[in-house]
Amino acid sequence: MTETVFCRKFKQDLPKMKIPPMPGSKGLDLMSTISQQAWDEWKSKQTMLINEKHLDLSSIDDRSYLEEQMEKFFNNDQTDEPTGFKPLA
Fold first, then answer.
1. The domain spanning residue 33 has which CATH number?
2. pLDDT digits (tens, 9 = 90+) for 23-78
3. b/e for 32-67, b at 16 or more Cβ within 10 A?
4. Could you tell me where the DSSP H helices lie in the chain?
5. What is the CA radius of gyration of the chain?
6. Separation between Cα atoms, residue 19 and residue 1, nearest integer Å
7. What is Dmax (Cα atoms) for the chain?
C-alpha cells in the first residue's frame, strides 16, 4: 500500500515522496506536505525557469530566487514564466 500525504499544492491525499527531496529540515518539511506528483511538476517548472532565465545555480541569488518560486508554486501563487510563455489550454 502506498503511503499518502495531504498535499498543500493539490489539497488532497496523494502518494508521498519516498525520500526527502533535499537535505535538512526543508527536505523533511517538503516530504511531509508535498506529494510526489507536486514534486515532479515542480521539477519540470524548475528546469524551465533555470533554462529560460539562464540561472546560475552556483549563485546564491539565483538559488534564493528558485526557492521563492518553489514556495509560490506549492502555495498555488503566481510564479514567473518566460517571456511569451502560453500554457496549453
1. 1.10.3880.10
2. 999 999 999 999 999 999 999 999 999 999 999 999 999 999 999 999 999 999 99
3. eebbbebbebbeebeeebeeebebeeeeeebeeebe
4. 24-33, 36-52, 60-74
5. 14
6. 16
7. 43
Q: Is residue 25 domain-resident? A: yes
The verdict on residue 20 lying in a domain is: yes
The whole-number pLDDT of residue 35 equals: 98
pLDDT of the residue at 81? 82
Nearest to 42 by CA among 88, 75, 89: 75
pLDDT of residue 84: 66
